[in-house]
Write a structure and sequence with these properties.
By secondary structure, this protein is α/β, with parallel strands linked by helices. It has 14 helices and 20 strands.
Length: 411
Amino acid sequence: MTTSGDTRVAWSTSYSASAELDLPTLDTLEVAGKVVLVRADLNVPLDAAGAVADDFRITASLPTIAELRSKGARTVVVCSHLGRPGGTPDPTLAMDAVASRLGELGGFDTLKVDSVAGPDAAAAIRDAAGAVVVLENTRFEPGETSNDPELSRSLAELADVFVLDAFGSAHRAHASTVGVAELLPAAAGRLLEAEIRALGGLLEEPPKPFVVVLGGAKVSDKLAVMKHLLPRVDLMLVGGAMCFTLLKAGGYEIGDSLLEESLLDEVDDLLDSEHGGKVVLPLDIVAAERFAEDAAHEIVPATAIPDDVMGLDIGPQSVERFGGVIVSGQSIFWNGPMGVFEWEAFRNGTAGVAAAVADASGFTVVGGGDSVAALRALGRADQVSHVSSGGGAGLEMLEGKELPGIATLIR
């Protein structure tokens, strides 16, 4: 990746080195004495009592908020969605717990308001007296996901400038990500900037060997990424339940393992393509007779899974093989667990890959909730070059797609 001066990130709407355009950042945005609306990604899991269960995304939003405050912003106003309330208020998805945790982690007072926009929100912002204002869940408004112009204007009327820092929502053309950015002076926050630098850099000229590790349940979720990245990578390691469709396409028996039969021809074409030889599949599989946490399990060859069992994790030989490839990489991207990570008996594959990624000396990028959770459970998230906050957005970026939120800032 190249940069232009010290104030802007050189980038393009297609995230390639060609046709570069400038992405405005906090270095180019005048914020002193102004009300700054920040679209953060505070879509965090809540526990049964309604408390924040994982504050990773909240913590990731703090550098941008802290910088805006230090640069003299009169008031920082934060908005985000939480869950999928479907355009109507849902008390279980209100932002109160998130606002409270944001203040605790940031060391500042927060003022949570019960509306997304309008007179009540505007009055709260005027009376904030140094507190960070947190608006109500943006998806309580039916116009959020449809990028309704009226909601966009109502949000824009609350502030003088806008900062998009929600990488996890940058692939959605919503009122709070795209609509308001078209109405106010706007820039990328530090989190969004870091995501673009890390993931975008993998699409340009990453140091070699470039290793990609993919897992998760469905090959359909990652087939576009595979097609886009295979010409660029040196090796692509595939585990998780998605590997069984690839094994089946290769002519192997997969027993009762998860199969996306409709994709067999497309996967077969991919494996037979010019770059298909870069795909590395598991050597062995942890298999069980049923999909259950307490199911009896055994290690079986990945190329000959018995008819009466299903694969639920990659086996120890696969972990060793994958780990050896990973630690030798100079650029590494990992997204998706190697098995049913939630269950201890089928966790070793994911834990082994997580350890290898953390031990690698190259540039490492990890995305996806389970992958990040594995790193954090091992206490090794700080040993990775970049932990991405946006699984879906990151995959779409690596597919070569234009992300509407980023494209709007560039335009």
